[in-house]
Amino acid sequence: MPRLDKHNKADYIKKAPRGLSENLVRKISQEKKEPAWILKLRLAGLRSFYATPLPGWGPDLSALKFEEIIYYAAPDEIVEDNRSWKNVPKDIKKTFEALGIPEAEKKVLAGVGAQYESETVYHRLKNKWEKLGVIFEDMDTAVQKHKKLVQKYFMKCVAPNDHKFSALHAAVWSGGTFLYVPAGVKVQEPLQAYFRMNAKNMGQFEHTLIIIEENAQAHYIEGCSAPKYGTHSLHAGCVEIFVKPRARFRYSSVENWSADTYNLNTKRALVEKDARMEWVGGNMGSGVTMLYPSSILRGQNAHAEHLGLAYAGRGQIQDTGAKVFHAADNTTANIVMKSISKDGGDTVYRGLIEVASRAKNVVTNVKCDALILDKHSHSHTIPKMRVANPTAEVIHEASVGKVDEENVFYLQTRGLSAEEAASLIVNGFIEPIVKELPLEYAVEMNRLIEINMENSVG
Amino acid sequence: MNIELNIKNLQARTKTTEILHGINLTVKKGEVHAIMGPNGSGKSTLAQIILGHPKFEVTRGVLEFKKKNLLLLSPDQRANLGLFLAWQNPKTISGVKIAPFLKQALEAKRRSQKSKKAPLKVREYQKLLLQTMENLKMKPEFAERYLNEGFSGGEKKKSEILQMSLLKPDIAILDEIDSGLDVDALKEVCQSISLAKSENNFGLVLITHYPRILQYLKPGYVHILLNGKIVKSGNWKLAQKIEQQGYAAFR
To answer: Which residues form the SUF system FeS cluster assembly SufBD N-terminal domain (chain A) (predicted)?
Structure first.
């Protein structure tokens, strides 16, 4: 039995067992009253997980103790009608308030879905979008209410046997977001979900499934934050996005897991003819992150935009990047990645650009800039390119550097102290990514970087 | 208070080379000085040493401003004391917008002076910034651009003058503010400098190769710097002599 942390008032995980087993997988499926095909996928995932070794590349994951992780927990309080703020339990509300959710919701959000541990407790969508046929639900509900849609797309973009952690995800996934935007519908306000992993040793295996039909348009925002705990937690979520012909979709996320979390996340989009997919992401926290959002450009003229920011401080490895598969003619991609390493932190840009032999006139631009703030920190760039068509134009630009002393002096001649100057330069460095994030997230990102900067001075 | 920049027998070097071999110069608030000399004579170095560039080491001499020993102060402390350096090639600070940056700089100065409350009210600042920009015939959108990123030569110089006009120094050193400007742009920049000077009557040190800028900004004192030393000082006529004869006559 896991002992509860005294700071954690709610007794959420008293029944949750540690470790992985077929029994646990069956229990999750049973509790969720899932259709048989999902259980089948879960069991296939479990077999694949056992059969697949840890990746032979990237950060060392050998300290990850699979048997000590809690793979599934449900809050004691289940809210019957989870669409109203009033019905959200007090403890959970407090957490959300600390994260600024209610204010944000009042202002700009079309709908809010938030996952508290494994069960979604709060979910809402403004009436006007519901009327247009937009579905914005938690995954568990979608499995019950939108069976056919879910079955058509679920784990069709990321297969359970894709890699070890997608297999684990398939076995124990719980909760997440389901978003469906019908053909021609353009959702103007961003749709938003905020995840929070609150119990010690809690795994978070949420599944996000997004379908943007032909000529539709939407923007979905996901943010993650976790309080600090002393033992290893694991996050192995999965995001699958289907962008149909002429559709446009933007996926923004800020991930700020606590420093003891392994964040091994899989995000992938299938982008069809004349469609556009935009990934905007910031990774601040976690101990080890391995995350490479992927775009499969399988229709002509499809475009992918990848904007990413990674911050690695003491004891952190941010192994992030982007993958783009050009499978059709005239597909284009633009990848801009920025990273900051400090206090011994380690950032890695790991990228893959693949151009199929049949895909003519592909254009891809990759630009990754790394800022290293002290001599204890590191940055690596590992770009891979497999170009099988000679008409492709693939450009890779990379820069690694420190804060320029001349630039600091320039700002000092305007009256800023050396620390203020360096901080301003660092903030300017990430600005091209931060400005693409919604304001409240941009503020959070800036604040987090500032906090981290402050800690390091002196 | 005696507002005066005082340089006596100033000697300085980089790790490998002696650069200044004993500079003597006094600049008072309200005065206009020109320091002229060919490329590599040490003009820009002198300016950077006055502001305290860490690359250079002062080995001897006196460097004082408002009776304070600048050699004991950091570059930002020197700036906040009332010195300003307009750079010959201002640095590009990517992602940092002019408007919020200048607010921060103004607040840093106010903080150092202690007499006023440091945080500026947004509206008060905006009014000040827009008025200053209007005086300099600059469009408001300019303040939303990243500092010096993608600026033309003329825009960089104007941006430096905008910063000077807002920070209101007691003494401003303008390092080749005329370089890279065509005749019209030069005239415009000089008008902006004159305007800022007429408002605050600060001291000006103009560093330049060419006498042309001096027609607009009429220095009372002209100094010729050769090989890290001031070899001749005089009035406006000295600049005319340089125009006719070049620097060869002073070597």
So the answer is: 130-192
